[in-house]
Design goal:
This protein is α+β, with helices and mostly antiparallel strands. The protein folds into 2 domains: 4-138, N-terminal domain of MutM-like DNA repair proteins (Alpha-Beta Barrel), CATH 3.20.190; 142-225 and 244-276, Orthogonal Bundle (Helicase, Ruva Protein, domain 3), CATH 1.10.8. 21% of the residues lie in helices and 23% in strands. Residues 2-129 form the Formamidopyrimidine-DNA glycosylase catalytic domain. Monomer.
């Protein structure tokens, strides 16, 4: 599932092609992924492209937001005919499949949005994702790490007794952090993912906040990550490069990057693969 850096990369690219365009028509191919009356954006122009946590939002003004949640296999493909007849500009984002290269619509296309200059396709193989008008989901999201300071971060996460990694990934507490960045932030802070939140010291809360902000900013800078359970390709069809900078994620059996002689271990926590160095993360 794409996390904050991946969706931010998608947002930046869509912003370049959609702002100012008018939605002319919508064709719904699967009502299973739809919430609300999508036709309310027809004949409206795009004012902005936003993001809240892992949710992409196309802003049509007048308190009208079109939200997309990719979940595991969602993707957006935008096509626009170029000046040269017969040639098309295509930008893509989300879960990478052959649909990125194939002719649209495909058997996985669930909704088609026709704009002035191009067409936006929402595809989803497993039908876990959704498209919604003014999604209520975002009202339940906690603040993003970039919106709060260290003191507020500590206040929010320290209320629980659950393992710290599960709290970091709880979108109602802090939004935008998923499996990849939670693993790496915990390595930065030298904290064991299993540690109960209420057992952390003031210094560890501080280091964890810094670690979360650091890895998310790196993720955005490198265009997100392309990983085994978080397949992601940015809107120009190029894979993100954060995976080249993983601290622990996906590095089971490899030496700790601190050079302390530790070996990265993997275990299951909350149904997700969890990676850590038992030597430096205590």
């Amino acid at each position: 599932m794409p996390e904050l850096p991946e969706i931010e990369t998608v947002r930046l690219q869509l912003e370049k092609v959609l702002v100012g365009q008018v939605c002319k028509e919508i064709k719904i191919l699967s009502h299973k992924v739809i919430n609300g009356k999508l036709e309310s954006v027809v004949h409206k122009s795009v004012k902005d492209v936003k993001r809240m946590g892992k949710v992409l939002l196309i802003d049509f003004g007048m308190d009208l937001l079109l939200g997309f949640h990719f979940k595991m296999t969602g993707q957006l493909i935008y096509e626009q005919e170029s000046i040269r007849a017969g040639e098309y500009k295509r930008v893509v984002g989300g879960h990478p499949t052959e649909d990125f290269l194939n002719k649209m619509p495909s058997s996985h296309t669930r909704v088609i949005f026709y704009f002035d200059k191009g067409t936006l396709y929402f595809n989803d193989q497993r039908l876990f994702g959704w498209v919604e008008i003014n999604p209520k989901f975002v009202e339940k999201l906690g603040p993003e790490p970039f919106e709060i300071d260290e003191k507020k971060f500590t206040e929010l996460v320290s209320k629980s007794k659950r393992p710290i990694k599960l709290v970091l990934m709880d979108q109602g507490v802090i939004s935008g952090i998923g499996n990849i960045y939670a693993n790496d932030a915990l390595w930065e802070a030298k904290v064991n993912p299993r540690r109960g939140v209420n057992t952390l010291t003031s210094k560890q809360y501080s280091e964890l906040y810094k670690g979360v902000v650091k890895v998310l900013k790196e993720g955005i800078r490198y265009g997100g990550a392309t990983a085994a359970d978080a397949k992601y390709i940015d809107l120009h069809g190029l894979g993100g490069h954060y995976q080249e900078h993983f601290r622990t994620y996906g590095r089971e059996g490899e030496e700790c990057k601190r050079g302390d002689g530790g070996i990265v271990h993997k275990f299951e926590l909350g149904g997700r693969g969890t990676y850590y160095c038992p030597k430096c993360q205590v």
